[in-house]
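Protocol step 4 of 5: obtain the predicted structure for the target chain.
Materials: sequence only (see below). No template structures provided, no constraints applied. The aim of this step is simply to have a reference model before the mutagenesis design in step 5. Sequence pasted as it appears in the construct record:
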Amino acid sequence: MGALRTPQETWVEEGLRALARGGVDAVRVEALARTLGVTKGGFYGYFTDRGALLTAMLDSWERSSVDDVLDRIERSDGDVLDKARLAGQLTFSDDGLLAVDLAVRDWARRDPAVADRLRSVDNRRMQLLRDAIGTFCSDPDEVEARSLLAFCVAIGRHLLAADHPGRTRDQVTARASALLLDRSSGGKRG
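Step 4 output (structure tokens):
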């Protein structure tokens, strides 16, 4: 019986872990093979080169951070605001998905193709926020401003090192979310 081949998904998953740990420069075929405890020969059964792996990694990231999140929130209970909150929790919680998302953002600063992919993903995320906030706010300028601020809180809170005297980061984030997604202060009515 022949040796079992390392599945393609395993290469992609390990590539995403390497990306999250050390950025795009840490995604090296030899290093991945060593981490997986296999030879790099199996890699070339799936990918023509490192670039093909990086593309597969971006595809996987987009699927898990947008498509899978949108599918999951569609199946969830609650109104559109509850679903927007859930999308933020699923995407920007302190797990592997957040670390990969932040690493993709760093990568996008140096690679225009990755920046285009990130823009596409962020546009889909922003539209979810616009749709949610638009259910209680009719002023398009305020909808856009609130959506931007909510997205900035979701991402930026992981990058700030500031203290919040007498409060935890989670308490302040929850209050910011409540202010931004508050139906009672919904801008101009039509």
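Step 4 remarks: The radius of gyration is 20 Å. The CA atoms of residues 57 and 166 lie 41 Å apart.
Proceed to step 5.
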